[in-house]
Amino acid sequence: MPSSAIDATTTAPAANNNDARESKVITWTQNPQERYYIDQPVAPGSYLGPLNASLPNADKIPLLFQPYTVKDLTISNRIVVAPMCMFSSLGGFFTDFHLVHLGSFAMGGAGLILAEATAVVPEGRISPSDTGLWRDEHIPGLKRIVDYVHAQGSKIGIQLAHAGRKASVKAYYTELPESEYWNDNVVGPSGGLDFKWDDRHHIPREISLEEIKETIKAFGAAAVRAAKAGMDTVEIHAAHGYLIHQFLSPISNHRTDQYGGSLENRARFLLEVIEEVRANFPADKPIFLRVSATDHVEHLDEPSWEIEQTVQIAKWVKEAGVDVFHVSAGGNTAKQVIQYAPCYQVPFAERVKKGVPGLDVVAVGVITSGKGANEVLEQEKADLVAVGRGFLRNKEFVLDAAVELNVKVKFQQQYERGRL
């Protein structure tokens, strides 16, 4: 328990309209007594044995509830909370909402929690309500969350992101003045009306070579801040049609310089971001990368981003320092056609896992049950499973999955009396 109170306050004036909300006072003060935690000698979500030892194969531990280790990160089970944008931030700061939101997953036994897409620069936010890590003042509030998650026995990482041409959209849940937006400063690999995502988004301008270099450095600086906050990992966001995905896909990247054209050129920005993040995040901690495996536009005549290219870059990023490859899909064009179904993205993860031996893979995409999640692992389609909306519907996803699989798991100490 700390010996003194922690007080983090910022009253920095806004440098421009992009930072307008940062001029408001953000204060976090905690006394030592408020930092007291009940010891969790066994992490919630850990396997303790079968619920019913008389059932067939009761002594076999489902893979979903076996520990997983990569570098110095060990998690108690193989269930990952996928990053989910909450649009509940003020000036990029993590708030009490995020403490409760992310902390609840730790209390419920999730092995690893990935905090939402967090912008490395102000204009990289999807909306003005996104979280950020572009300034040191963002660290204390984030560290508060990390400390709480760790005290519950879980692990936590953060997704580093830049929205590119999908930035500066209307803030969710609340009305904000126009001064909060940066509609005339939305960037993408290519610019102009043809590269506007849809009518809800803005016309991007082509990001310059100098701005590319600055953005790469911003990813590295955010990785430093994540490490200072105590993060167990960082995940680079190269999926869902945001800036890195925009560079990868020939739909959104029509550049003619070293960052456009061939697959090697279109992947250059990603590889340089990985290099910068790896150089600025502790070497003994893993780096995750989330990628969309396809643009889901096979019906179009124009070239797009597809699984074969994903497998190729998976080989390159493994060599560049990525430890875990998180496979999602879509998000880069309004012309996409997606057939949602349980585990609909898992085949993409399986393709990467089989195509790149030695690279650990996360599968995601409408994984709704413990049995379904365990089958993905048992059939060697992935090494971890990530669940997003399933956790929003049910904070006790891990505990319910355990019951499905005849597993007795550790409850949080304070909740043990609730065990049936």
Oligomeric assembly: single chain
Count of runs of 4 or more consecutive helical residues: 11
Assign the CATH topology: TIM Barrel
Q: Which H/E pattern describes the elements?
A: EEEEEEHEHEEEHEHHHEHEHEHEHHE
Q: Give a count of the beta strands, DSSP E runs of length 2 or more.
A: 16
Sheet with most strands: strand arrangement:
6-7-8-11-12-13-14-15
Based on CA inertia axes, which overall geometry fits? globular
Q: Indicate the percent of residues in helices.
A: 25-40%
Low-confidence stretches: 1-25
CATH architecture: Alpha-Beta Barrel
Task: Name the CATH class.
Answer: Alpha Beta
Q: In angstroms, what is the radius of gyration? A: 21 Å
Q: CATH H-level name... which superfamily?
A: Aldolase class I
Strand percentage lies at: 15-25%
Cofactor: FMN
GO molecular function: FMN binding; NADP binding; NADPH dehydrogenase activity
Keywords: Flavoprotein, FMN, NADP, Oxidoreductase
Organism: Mortierella polycephala
Task: Please characterize this protein's 3D structure.
The structure is a single chain. The chain has eleven helices and 16 strands. It is α/β, with parallel strands linked by helices. An eight-stranded parallel barrel has the order 6-7-8-11-12-13-14-15, surrounded by seven helices. A two-stranded antiparallel ribbon has the order 1-2. A two-stranded antiparallel ribbon has the order 3-16. α9 links the parallel β14 and β15. α3 packs parallel to α6. The longest helix is centred in the middle third of the chain and has 20 residues. It is globular and about 65 Å long.
